[in-house]
Amino acid sequence: MPNSFRAILVSRNEDKKQSVDIVKLTEADLMDGDVTVSVEATTVNYKDALAITGKSPVVRHWPMVPGIDLVGTVEQSDNPQFKQGDKVLLNGWGVGESHWGAYAGMARLDAKWLIALPSGITPLQAMGVGTAGYTAMLCVMALEKYGITPARGPVIVTGANGGVGSVAIAILSKLGYHVIASTGRPEEAEFLTSLGAKEIIDRAELSEPGRPLGKERWAAGIDAVGSHTLANLLAQTNYGGAIAACGLAQGFDLPATVMPFILRGVALLGVDSVSAATNRRIEAWSRIKADLDMEKLEAITTTIGFDDIILTAKALIDGKVRGRVVVDMSL
Ligand code: NDP
User: Fold this and answer.
1) In this structure, which residue's CA is closest to atom 10 in ligand 1?
2) What is the structure's pLDDT at 2?
3) If you placed Cys at 313, which of 49, 147, 205, 223 could pair as Cys (CB 3.0 to 4.6 Å)?
């Protein structure tokens, strides 16, 4: 184990003004846990960008090492489930929010938050998927559990160029769905088509207040955006369809009416990745292995080093990042 390692530390002064620094830590500085992991790869998700920029209050313990996703090697374990040398994967569980996370050379974690890195997926691929991609898969699973199939009709994906959206498009298209991508970046149409989108619409069509019920346009949807967009998605869902809602990139409000629910039997399916049970995580990762084309994942992914995390987080909040960002800690 190294004597010291670099970490990103987010702090707050008495006036609650936030600052971000790259610091040196030792193992003794780490929070409690029963498994110590050397971090090989991580990623920059929307939530990580919120933690670093302070744009929304996602940090619940100060100071904080952000980073909600990691793949690493177990250095030391007091839990019989894991031993030194095991490759492990972590997504969420409040790590990077209330427990020091992935943006450090080492992390000390609770064994119940970890799963074995699925065989056949490399550390960098797993972080290419990350919480965003694993959430996209949870959304697909939620729609399937509700009975949605490709034969039912098109599926709309909002926030199409983002992490959740781009992975959702790649998975849905491999499963044979007709995917409609909603984006504010029409200049990325070619990219979205290469992922498997069959139609592209301007997100402005959905982001303003709309009618309680509109023309039926899709059988289902995956929404990473919330607010008026989610309300309009519901209002334009076919009879008996469903929308899986996981995000709030436009807003956390839901200015909708009950009309789609009571007149069209539309369902709103909530999706949470942070506290999802371990068996659902294992199922989602095994589905990712089967149903996400790794060549498409590569096309979605940009790889950066530790030194680029802070600037990338700012760019992500400004809507300037396409797809997924992987952090290779060896760079
Ligand atoms: P990204 O920042 O990668 O993507 C968000 C995308 O949303 C953007 O790329 C953009 O797509 C679109 N967007 C941004 N701002 C707006 C706006 N004002 N109005 C409409 N669309 C907008 O984030 P992620 O994909 O990683 O995460 C997406 C959302 O899902 C976030 O809110 C995140 O917190 C949430 N999330 C929730 C999880 C859960 O467990 N429920 C887990 C993971 C993420 P485009 O340019 O194509 O329009």
Assistant:
1) 159
2) 75
3) 49
